[in-house]
Amino acid sequence: xxxxxxxxxxxxxxxxxxxxxxxxxxxxxxxxxxxxxxxxxxxxxxxxxxxxxxxxxxxxxxxxxxxxxxxxxxxxxxxxxxxxxxxxxxxxxxxxxxxxxxxxxxxxxxxxxxxxxxxxxxxxxxxxxxxxxxxxxxxxxxxxx
Amino acid sequence: xxxxxxxxxxxxxxxxxxxxxxxxxxxxxxxxxxxxxxxxxxxxxxxxxxxxxxxxxxxxxxxxxxxxxxxxxxxxxxxxxxxxxxxxxxxxxxxxxxxxxxxxxxxxxxxxxxxxxxxxxxxxxxxxxxxxxxxxxxx
Lengths: 145, 139
Hints:
The structure holds two protein chains of two kinds.
Chain A: H1 8-15, E1 30-34, H2 38-50, E2 54-58, H3 61-70, E3 76-80, H4 89-99, E4 104-109, E5 120-123, H5 128-139
Parallel strand pairs in A: 1-2, 1-3, 3-4, 4-5
Chain B: E1 18-22, H1 26-38, E2 42-46, H2 49-56, E3 65-69, H3 78-88, E4 93-97, H4 100-112, H5 123-138
Parallel strand pairs in B: 1-2, 1-3, 3-4
């Protein structure tokens, strides 16, 4: 399965260096992690980099929107539900579903299971390697990167 | 013996592996962190000084270089954060920057002296990337 379903213009933008970290990483899937608990975010981000993702980190939903506006080519968003700021995980999921249709949203929470607006939900604590496997499966990304 | 020529670059940093990037502007932080990862550093990111202190208070999390915005980000400024690091984690090198171009220049310098011993691209490209991303966000 080919996970890179980016529109041609987006691929060209990525190739020109505007949207990708660097041309050598242009082929890797981009995962945006949104988590306000720094130590958890740090550990998850590190594991996801080990899984082959280019990982962007946001400390809350508002930061996530800021990154999405700059990097619309994000393949998947993995977000906590409850976060400080104006945009919680549910609001973020609604925005992603509406305005970033090629980006898949995945939610996690230790408290509540959200309405079914996400591609998958992971109760906390989660196993990052399992989360990575599900994200790759849903996005059609090869398991080994 | 002659004096060495005046050099405004920071003193050479030893080759170290983990850089902790503390910048509150998300796009700038991501680009700088991405650049340093391209230079083969292990990079930790924090959005503000409060997050930074949570990480720095963990003695088991190794940090070799603190790379922070000098301005206020969180409840204490970059300067106050640096003072805390000097007092409590004195082995950490500190790099404080004021602007995007200063940050890019400092990151380029770290790359030259980092694990890869080279820059993946020039620091000006980092500044340009930040500018393009911010333009895109505003458009």
